[in-house]
Amino acid sequence: MNRFLTRVATATCLTLGLAAPALAQNIAIVNGKPVPTARLKALEQQVARSGRPVDDAVRQQLREEAILREIFMQEAERRGLRASPEVKAQLELATQTVLIRELFADEQRRHPVTDADLKAEYDRIAASMGQEYRARHILVGSEDEAKAIIAELGKGARFEELAKQRSKDPGSGANGGDLDWATPDMFVPEFSEAMVKLGKGEVTSTPVKSPFGWHVIRLDDTRKAQLPPFEDVKPQLQQQLQQKRLAEFQEALRAKAKVQ
Prior knowledge:
By secondary structure, the chain is an alpha+beta fold. The chain has 3 domains: 21-83; 102-129 and 228-260, no CATH class; 131-224, Chitinase A, domain 3. Helix content is 61%, strand content 15%. The longest helix is centred in the C-terminal third of the chain and has 27 residues, at 230-256. It starts with a helix and ends with a helix. Its EC number is 5.2.1.8. Residues 130-221 form the PpiC domain.
């Protein structure tokens, strides 16, 4: 009896010893076919890429999804759906999508955007920036009204007060006509052309017509265009540089390809 019990115990230990690695490699066995742990890991990575945290509850849901996928796949295989031309075409497209995504990810891993790259791009943009202008305007509906305002300003009327009383632009009018700091390209061409010709403190001597009406413009100040601090725009710069490099990578591959 003791020898029999010893043999049973030995066989049990051997069975458990063989089962442990199998359980580590697979999350389940469905109809005799293993569902590998790697499949669950792939689902977890998909969730993580979307920005969702993968906690124990999510992991359990994904495990059940992996098992259901295997059940459905087995039924699809049993029905011979894999041999369908439509399915084959869709599988080919899906394979291409996955491989292309991984190709681009691999390219980014091989050529990462460094802090030095980001600082160089920041400095390049800063150097290329032009002037910013701080101007005020009074917008009215007719040339005669604009001329009357210019005449009043010539007699000593305060620009800010006239803007509050007479301007048709409710946004700036309430602030005395102040348009804050802006580059010329932020305004319609007629406005910009007149504004950039002014010296600090000068008012347009004639009304300026634009699609919005008639403007009387005063230039308060100018300065070199300002960029936000480097750390504030660093994530945006990184995204832009990554996209730029991926576009260059794609263009280079296309240029080298022999297409007949």
